[in-house]
Write a structure and sequence with these properties.
The chain has 320 residues and is α/β, with parallel strands linked by helices. The protein is 38% helix and 22% strand. It has helices spanning 2-11, 18-27, 30-37, 41-55, 71-91, 111-128, 141-150, 194-198, 213-221, 291-306, and strands spanning 60-63, 66-69, 105-109, 134-138, 155-158, 166-181, 201-205, 227-232, 248-252, 265-269, 276-284, 317-318.
Amino acid sequence: MMADMLTTHIDRVDLNLLPPLVALLEERQVSRAAVRMGLSQPAMSRALQRLRRALDDPLLVRDPDGFRLTARAEDIYDQLTTVVPLLQHLLSPNSFDPSQSNAPVNVAGSDYAVQTLGPAVCLQVRNQSPATAVRFHNLRLDGIIEQIRSGAVDIGLYGGDLPQDLQAETLFVEDFVCVLAHDHPLAGVARVTLDDYLEYPHIVIDTSDGRQTAVDRPLASLGRPRDAAVTVPYHSSALALLPGTDLIATLPARLRAGWSGVHTLRAQPAPTEVATLRYQMIWNRALDSDQRHVWLRGVVRAAADQSRPRGGQPLPTPLT
C-alpha cells in the first residue's frame, strides 16, 4: 500500500522541477532563481506555474517588501533541507572526474576566508576542473548553516562553534594579533595583557550578530567584555580606521600579507585569553562519501596548507 501511495504522489510531479523549486524557495524571486539555475526568466516562470499546479499552492506571494513564502512553501523548504542532500548523495555517481565536471562550487566564508584561502582554491579548481565556476557567499552564520543543510552551499569556512548535525574539520589554528596605530600607548609593549587590552576601545569585526565570535565569546565566558567602539563588516576595513586613534583591532595573523606598506600601524601578539582561532571547514554529513565533495574538501585542505606562514617574522613588528 505504501508503494502504491508513493507512486501516486511521485507520478504527479516531474522530479526535474526539484532544483527550480529549491532555487525559488531560497531566492524568493523568479529572476534571481532563473540566474542561479541558468534559465531564462520566462522558463523559470513556467516552472513556478507547474509547481503551483502540482503542489496546489501559490508558493510565492507578493507583499510590500517583494515576495514571501506561503506556509505550505515554508513547510516544503524545511523538509527539502534534509531531502535534497540525501537525494544528491543517492543519485551521485560512484566516481568523480573534476576535469569533466561543470557543477559550480559554492563556498561560504568571511572576507578573511576569501583573502587567505580564496586564491589557492580558485587556482586549484581552475587547474583541475576548468569548466567549474567558484562562488563565494557572505558568511552570515544562521543563513549559511541552513544553506549547508539544504545543499545550496558545499563548504563553509568558520572559526566558531557549530551545530552537531554538521561535519567539521579543523584546517589550522590561527594566531590573533592586536593591530593598532604606531603611536598607540601599547605599541611598544612586548606582550599585551588582558588588562591592557580591555583598557582601550576596540574595532569589532561583525562575524555573527554584531560580535566577533572567536574573540568576544571567550571574553564573555570570563565576564570581561571589551568596549566595542566601532563595528565593521569586514576585516580589511578595520585598518583604515586605526591611525590617529587609541582603537585596537584584533585580526588573524594570516592577513598580514595584505598590510604590506602600511607604515602607520603595528601588530602585537593578542592576550593569551584570545590568542588563537581554530579555523574549520564545515559541511553536510550526508556528503561525507560523495566523491565530488571528497575532491572539494581536498582542494580546501591544500589551500589551507598553502596559506600557512613559512618562516614568518616574530611579533611585534611594524606593518611594513
